[in-house]
């Protein structure tokens, strides 16, 4: 008997009926968990977390809907990282009438795996048989050929606003760099202008989750390519815990990733034969291999989610190394060709003792903010004005200018997937327009009682006594500071978490 967790997009066809059919078939002989009846709240999030960690297999249904689900992605991330450290669960992906290439970060998690196909209802018995073999020690029949982790998509979409009612794109994930729905903020211009520095630059992009940091990083990469730069992209979320905790593993992988991304031969093992320390070996690798192989070329190293390194025991050494690369430009030479862009959602000054060794307070520091009322109105216009001016003001008050949620609300109304009144009425429901997003936040806090308690302090008393907890909540995009008060980021969060964390 195996323990199986089924991950799928709720209340959507064909996801829900196929997942239910597989659940009913596999529970005859196995212990199967599927989230159909659990009430959302603290216990719900803990049950999901524990069920994934206790499972031998995680069956994930991939459809045009589920690939954008925050909860589905969170469950895959949890299974992936737990599986690397504990050996289980094994992930079994199933494509439901969906043949598109997986977008990042799902591509990095799932492309190397075997998977099953389902195209129509008549395929269900075959799919069940394949999954039964897989959870009994066999394997799924097909294997992808895509194995390279790639940067967020740079696919272009039409820019004529007149086509918007038919060409709304998707509100999920990193925006294509020419999307007409991308609201350029003053900070965006500061970042792109910084790339004009002839002696190289370090750019830090700061802000909470889903603020548009990765989209801006993507635009910087496109801008860099347009200026003739050779670009490399590294997402620290995709670096395993074993590497984050072991300096020798990490620095070797870091150099191999740089080689892969910049398109040069990987000579990591050769450079690791010398008796230098890990930081010295890595710096030597960049100066005497990468920069020599790519002579007369400006390089841009784009690093996303670098706050992941704040948990590393050697974080000070790593960030000091990046700072030394920045300082190296002052001496001239090849370092003036090495540009860096770093994205973080956590306040680095709380975790780096010596600010003189920090790469986050030099060069161009860009901090992204929520949309202003004018920017929400601008975005409404780009969607074809689906909301009246009064409705724009109402959605701005509810969401506080949250870039992702504002875009999603306008997308739902403009595409006629939901009426405005229904969006507002059901905003705080678990199965409402923002339910997937809200449940994802609840899920990610499930093992952190200090965060849940801190958030309730903010909601009830407008304060957060523990400054470290405040910075973590702000990094997650849940709270903001106004004067001496700490407030929920928006009215939606205040109502939803005020109720759920009190359950």
**Beta-strand content:** 5-15%
What is the number of beta strands?
Answer: 13
Strand adjacency order, main sheet? 2-1-3-4-5-6
Helix content: 40-55%
User: What's the alpha carbon Rg, rounded to whole Å?
Assistant: 23 Å
Using the coordinates above, name the CATH class of the largest domain.
Answer: Alpha Beta
**Could you give the distance between the termini?**
34 Å
Q: What does the main sheet amount to?
A: 6 strands, mixed
Number of domains: 4
Structural class: alpha/beta
Spans where pLDDT lies below 50 across 5 or more residues: 145-166
**Overall pLDDT level:** 87
Oligomer: single chain
Number of helices: 20
Envelope shape: globular
Q: CATH fold name of the largest domain, please?
A: Rossmann fold
Secondary-structure arrangement, i.e. CATH architecture of the largest domain: 3-Layer(aba) Sandwich
By CATH, the superfamily of the largest domain comes out as P-loop containing nucleotide triphosphate hydrolases
Q: What structural keywords apply?
A:
single chain; alpha/beta; Rossmann fold; 4 domains; 20 helices; 43% helix; globular
List the helices and strands and how they pair.
Layout: E1 3-7, H1 15-26, E2 31-34, H2 42-54, E3 57-62, H3 70-86, E4 90-96, H4 106-110, E5 114-118, H5 124-134, E6 142-143, H6 186-194, E7 202-206, H7 213-226, E8 230-235, H8 241-245, H9 247-262, H10 268-271, H11 278-293, E9 299-304, H12 315-328, E10 338-344, E11 364-367, H13 373-382, H14 389-399, H15 403-414, H16 420-425, H17 435-444, H18 449-461, H19 467-475, E12 479-482, E13 485-488, H20 491-500
Parallel strand pairs: 1-2, 1-3, 3-4, 4-5, 7-10, 7-11, 8-9, 9-10
Antiparallel strand pairs: 5-6, 12-13
Helix pairs in contact: 1-5, 2-3, 2-17, 9-11, 13-14, 18-19
